[in-house]
Structures are given as C-alpha cells and as structure tokens.
Design brief:
heterotrimer, A mainly alpha, B mainly alpha, C mainly alpha, A: mainly alpha, Helix Hairpins, 0% strand, elongated, B: mainly alpha, Four Helix Bundle (Hemerythrin (Met), subunit A), 2 domains, 6 helices, globular
Amino acid sequence: MITSTHYMLLSAALFMIGVVGVMVRRNIIIIFMSIELILNAVNINLIAFSYQLQNVIGQVFAVFVIAVAAAEAAVGLGIILAFYRNKETVNIDEMNLMRW
Amino acid sequence: MAQAIAFYFLAACILGFAVLVVSAKDTVHSVLFLVLDFLFVAALYVLLGAQFLAAIQVLVYAGGIVVLYLFVVMLVNLKRPPEAHVDPHRQGRMGFWLSAAVLIELGAIALWGSASPAPAAAPLPTPMTGNTEQVGWMLYTNYLIPFEIASMLLLVAMIGAIVLAKREL
Amino acid sequence: MNYIWLIPLLPGLGAAVNGLVGIRSFSRRTAGLVACSVMGAALLVSLVAFWQMLGLAPDARGVDVVVAQWIPAIPLATSHGIAGFQVPWGFRLDPLSGMMILIVTGIGTLIHVYSTGYMADEPRAGVARFFCYLNLFCFFMLMLVLGNNFLVMFVGWEGVGLCSYLLIGYWYEKKTAADAGKKAFITNRVGDWGFILGVFLIFVTFGTFDFRAIQNAAAALPVETAHFGVLSVICLLLFVGATGKSAQIPLYVWLPDAMEGPTPVSALIHAATMVTAGVYMLGRNAVLFSHAPMVMEIVAIIGVLTALFAATIGIVQYDIKRVLAYSTVSQLGYMFTAMGVGAFSAGAFHLMTHAFFKALLFLGSGSVIHAMGGEQDMRRMGNLRKYMPVTFATMLIATLAIAGIPPLSGFFSKDEILFRSFVSNKAIWVIAVATAMMTAFYMFRLLGMTFFGAYRGPAWETAGHGAVTVAAAHGVAHPVDAHAHGHAQRPDHEVSHGPADDDAHGHGHGAWHGPHESPASMTFPLQALALGAIIAGFIGVPAALDGSNQIERFLEPSFTASVAASAETPAARAGEAAGGHAAGEAEAAGEHVSRAEELGLMLLSVLVAVGGIVLAQRFYVTRPEISDHLADRFAGAHRLLTNKYYVDELYDATVVSGTFAAGRGLWAVDRNVVDGVVNGTGWLTIISSWFSGLTDRSVVDGLVNLVGWIVQESSHAFRRLQTGLVQNYALLMLFGIFAFVSIYLFVR
C-alpha cells in the first residue's frame, strides 16, 4: 500500500539529490538545474498530500510553485548570461568578487 | 498492486535520472536527463490523480524551462571546460555528507513521525468533476488574488530577464 | 541723690569733647580749661552728694540709683537653680564710695590743675590728648567706685587699666614708654583673669552680681575657718585681680616701669586712685572676705611681704620717681595687710591719707624734675631747698606724713594698721614695724639727697643765649653740657619735652637757668595737698588718744551686711570690729590689749620712724660717704637690691619667654600640622588622581580598547566566511537546516 510516507521519502530523496547538486557542482547551469529538482521534490510532496487529504488546495499551491520556478529560472538565466558576458565563465568558483 | 509497481518504477526512474542530472559531465546531457526527470514526475502526478498538474508540468517545465536552459547552454559557448578551476576554499565533501545526514534525518522523521495526517475529512463543496475543473475553480475563487499576483510576478520576471540579457542596456 | 550718675559722666563728657574736638582744634589753655572745669564740677556734685548722705542716718547711708538696664534678664544656671543674669547700670553711694569719690574728684581736680602747668611744653595736640585721657581715666575710676554690681565695677576696672596704658605710653615714640605701657596692661590682664573667674564663680554661687545682695547672701553662710570652700575660692580669685591692679607680689612689676609716664599721671593713677582700686574692691566685699579667713591670712601675708620687699628695693634706687613708685607698692602692702587682718576701715583710712601725701610727693617730685630740666637722678641734685622753698616745704610735710610722725595724717592711719596687726598676728607686726623704719629711712634719704647737702647737678648759664643753639636742636632747654640729651644712655630720663616735637615749642625759658620754683599752677595744688596731709588724720584719732575714731564708725556700714547689721551672729561680728578701739575686746580672734600697751606701741612706732630719719640724715646729709662705703662693703646685696631682686629678669626668662616659645610652637604647629594637613590633602588628591588616571588609562581605556580589539579580531576571523563561494554559503544554510531537522527529530 503506497502511503504518503513513501511519497515523502521519495520527495526527501529527490530534494537531497538536488541539494547535493547545488553543493558539489561548479557549473552554475547545473546548479540551477539542481534547484529545479528541489522545486520538483517539493511539488511531489504537495501533490501527494493533496491526494491523501482529498483536497485540491495542494495542487493549487503546486501550480504557484511552478509559476514561481519559471519566473526564477528566467531571471536567473538572465543573470548568468550577463555574468558570462563580463567574466567569460560559468564556473561558480570564479564568481567570487564578494570575497573578503 | 499495480499502483505499487508503477510507483516504485517511477520513483526509481526519477531518482536515477536526478542522480544523472547532478553527476553528468556534459551540460547538455545534464539538461536532457532533467527533461526526462520532469516527464517521469509528470507521470507520477497522473498516478496521484493530478492530471492538470501533470499537463502543466510538461508544458511549463519540460517545455519552457528546459528550453530556456538549452538556449543558455548554447549561448554560453565555452572554450575551456566549465569546471576546470577549483577554489581551494570549497567544502564539497562536507556538503555531500551533510546532505546525506539530513536525508537520513528526514527519512527518520517521515517514517517515525508522530503526527499522522488526517484522512480525507473535508469534502469539496464543488461538484466532483474533473481535476482541471477543480483546480480552476479553486484558483479563480479562493485564490484569485495570489493568481493575479503570480501573473504580475511572471510579467516582472519577463521584463527582468529581457533587461538582464540585453547586450546593451 | 538720684544725680550721682553725673559724677562719672562729667569727666566722661570732658574726655569726649577733648578727644573728638580738642585734639584737632583746642589750644592748650582751652583743653586744660575744659578738663579742669568738668573735674571741678564733678567735685562739686560729689561734695553735695556726700553732704546729703551725711544728712542721712548712719544705717541708711546706702543709696542705689539705677540709670538703665544694661543686660536684660537671661536665665542662666547657678549652683542652686536657674537665676536671671541681669545687669543694670546701677550706682551706689554709701560711706565707702562716698569717701572714694571725694578722693578721686578732689585729688583729681588738683592734679588736673597741676597738669596745665606741667604739660605746658608739650605740643598742642598732645596736651589735648593728655587731658582727654586723664578725664577718661577719672570717668572710669568713678564708675569703678560708684558701681553697685560687679560688672559695672569691672567696666571701670578695665577702663582704668586701659587709661593707665594710654597714659603711661603717652610719649609713645619712646620705646621704653611704649614697653612700660604694654607691661602695665598685660600684667593687669593677668590679674584680671583671676578677677573674672572670681566674678563668674560669684554668679554661679549667688546668682547675682549686686554687691548688697551678695553681702546679704554671704552673711547667711557659715565662715569657712576650717576648709577651703567656694567662698574662699571666690575671694582668692578676686584677690588675684587685686594683686594685678594694686601691684602686690607677684604682679607689682609694672608699677616701677609705669614711671615712664608724665608725673601727673604717676601722681593720680599710680599713687592715689587706680592702684587703690584693689583695696577698694576688697573693702567692698568685706563680708565675703570675712567668711574666708584663710584667704584673709594670705592677703595679710602677701601684703606685708610686699611692703617689706618693695621697701628694701626702694632704699637703693637713685631715680626719684622710682623711689616713690616702690614706696607706693610698699604702702599698698600696708593697706592689704590692714584688709587682711580684718581692719577694713583702717585700710581705707590709710588709702585716703596715702592718697594725699603720695600724690603730694609725686607732684613735688614733678616740680623738682621740671625745675631740673628733666633730670631725675638724685645723685645729680642736692641743696634744692635754696631754690625751691615751696616745693621743699610741701615735700617735707609729705615725707613726715609717710614716715608716720604725729600729728600728721600718716601717723594715725599707719599706727592703726600696726596696732591691728599686733593684735592679730605678731609676726606680721614685726615685719610691718621693720618696714616702717625702712619707709622713714628711704623717704628721708630722698629728701636729703634732693634738698640738702651740696649741689651736685650741672652748671647753668645765668643769662644769654649761648646755649640756645645746642638746646634748640631738640627744642629743649637743657643744661649745656653734653650728657643732657643722651637718650640712649639714660633710659629713665623723663622726656617731658619729647624728641618728636621740634616745632612750635612754647618753652619760654630758652637756655636752662638753673633750678627754680615752679609756677603757681603747680605750687597751688602742692599746698592744697599738704594741707590735706596735715589735717586728714584727725578724723581717725583712736580712742587711746581720746579720740572718737570717726572714720571707722563712718565706714563701718559699708563693711557689714545690712541684714546682719543688727544681728549678733558671729559672721557679722567677725566682719568688722564694731566699735573699734573703744570696745577693743569684742573679737573672737583678737586679744585684749590695754590702753597702756596701745600707747606703748604708738610710741614704739614713732621711735622707729625717728630712728629711720636720723639714720637717713647721717648717711646722706652729714656724712654722705658712708652710703658709698656700705655699698662697697655689701656689694652683693647692694647689687641684688639695685637690680630689684632680678624679678623682672625672672619673669622674662620664664613667663615671657615661655609665652613666646608657646607662640612659636603654635606657629610651628600651624605651619607643619595645619598647613601640613592641607598640603597633605592636596598631595593625597594629586596622588589619588594619578592613580585614578592610571586606572582610567589602563583599566577603563583598556576595556574599551579590548572591546575594539575583540571586534577587530573576531571580524578578522569571521570575514573568512566570506569566501566568495556561493556554495559555501549554501552549505551554511544546509547546516542550519540540519540543525532544525535534528532538533525536530530529537526533541519532538
């Protein structure tokens, strides 16, 4: 019987994979994609609970999450492009102007 | 039974492709794995009875966002390997193991969490029609204002992206 | 008789006029006129008051007149309850004060007249100043004798001391005169210390200052024969004041030095009036003293010792005024002896007769000095009777009186004292008789050296002004030879023509033309006093010579308490021998002396006096070399006497040096301790402020700097977080998530 616990575990695993990707990879585009994974994990969680509680509110929430993710992806990639034009790199280690 | 099999298969795919996304060397490969991941997540949504969300997932995520990523990858035309320079201060290993620890803890919470979700107690007052209609009904009545704000957010993001990506301001 | 307050007031007015206006603008004549006329007026008022008092019954001859309230009633604690400390300006006329005011105003007026002649050579302002002081003195003296309570008397007591100082130091530019004035005042002050303590104790004991009230209260108290009680303490303290004012041992040292003042001053103050204030005070408090027989003994002993002591010094002095000064001390000793053996009226009687002949002696010596152009040393006089017959005659009368030759006044008063001391204490009598012989001796020595023998003084110009230039440099008519103005080598040279007055000198003589008789203004008072010296004795003729001793009966009410005047208590009886010689045997302490014995004593005293006269005649007139011979043989004793037993040196070495040393010591305390404390406090403040500065610098600033250092170092450490690596920041966020999840997991 697939309960919400399973879905929670799945979502947790997907979330932490995304986190690892954010932590480990140096390519900023990969990092952004990992962030998308995180957002997807959250969505899975929401939908799962919506299914379990038989309430459509969770899905509405997930719709908004998707909307926000899209907006964030657009803006973030715009930033990457602007940064790339200045520094000719997508290596996050080289984006360290804010170090002391 | 069938649900269980479907679930486990989809879960395995999702997780597998996610790992591949994170660990692929080539950026384009990473994007492709991401698309597949999104598709499998959509399938999972269908399994959960959220057909509208599955459609939205495919449309927006797999169709829009990933395309965006591909475009950016194309525009970022690197001469040298993108991950060549390693800053000595980074703490990659710690991130990895810390994430593992958090995962374990989350799992523990999920498995042995004391709060059990209540069963479906609040029936919807709306007629039980399709999922899309349900979501739409919610969206346009109770959550109208967040909906409008979200549309404004998208507008602003669009403008911002255009401004950021312009060659000359 | 409510006008008796006029008696002191009139001289007071004269002093005010002369002081405020006279010094500035009066001529010599005007100043003298003002002064003499107020004194004459006071004499008139005194005579009228005295005559009115004589008209009263003997028991009622005490009149109190209160003019105003001085100190309003203040409740103060005494030995028995709270008494009202209230002092009126009260004056009392009774037999004793009546006699005193007559002496003061009478002899005072004569001396004022004399001074107009004597001070004629002084500068104009100085003359006005002199008369101002002289009148002021009479004002205070009359207040002293007329006051009816201790405090009014004390005003006069202090006032006469002040005037004595002012008058002794009249020639204040002369250092010895200024020093003598200071000595007089300070010595008086020492006595006054005892006097004031006595007055305080009187208030504590009796609760009042009024003489009559005290006498009545004391009469009710038992006589302190066995123990030294509070009355004895009071009387002893009062007597200390008397020794200062009346120049007894140990406070007599100022009187010889007081001769620095002008001769009229010596006559009035230091012979007739001020020095008798102590005797008067004793008489005023006769009842008190009668209740303290031990103190009376002390008084008598000190009195007779002083008489002897001063007489021994007087026999070797060469300054004419010094001899008279020591004679005064000696005669005062006689008065105190009389008071001490209980013969209060005898002492007062001797006071009166002594005033006459001592004032006469001083004025006569002033006349001699004036005639000799300022010379005071008897060794440079001699045979002056040829040139100054009037002066000689009057001084002879006075000398016979003081020697105690009947029928002059001195015989009666002195004999009374000798008789009473014989009755009371034989030892005292022996000393008194010896002193009488010495008195006769040195007084006739004075007479012999001055008026008899060969003239030993300087030569003079009979006419011409050859000596004027020398003399006019000092504006002084002095004899032409060189030793005339050696001020430095002749400290007792009476500078009657002071060194400061080079201008406006009215001396009409010019060069000194030798000794001459004084003008009438000076000889008239001499004659008047001589008359007094002759006849004054007849009011005190004792019963042994078939007299009625009127003076004793007259003065008796003053010496007894009015309450006990009629009582038969032994206290009243011991106070005054009622009836004097006529009864003679009524005293508890006296012994029965028959008339024959009394006559024999009188004869003895006369013989003793004659013996002294004969000796003096031999030593100084017929065979003057004997005195020098004796002086060489007994050189040590002679030196001791000439140097006045070195008493002044002793006082200087002990008291004066001690006071100066104490002052220096206190100055050292002030410098070191007081200033040291102040400076030390300043030092402490500086040091403690240095410490707090140190604390502020190191601790406080250190703390502040430490905080800054901590911030700096911690920021130095913390900025390492800003690696610039986004993933490090994300890692930190993950840390936070991990923490929250752990908390959720393990706590919930």
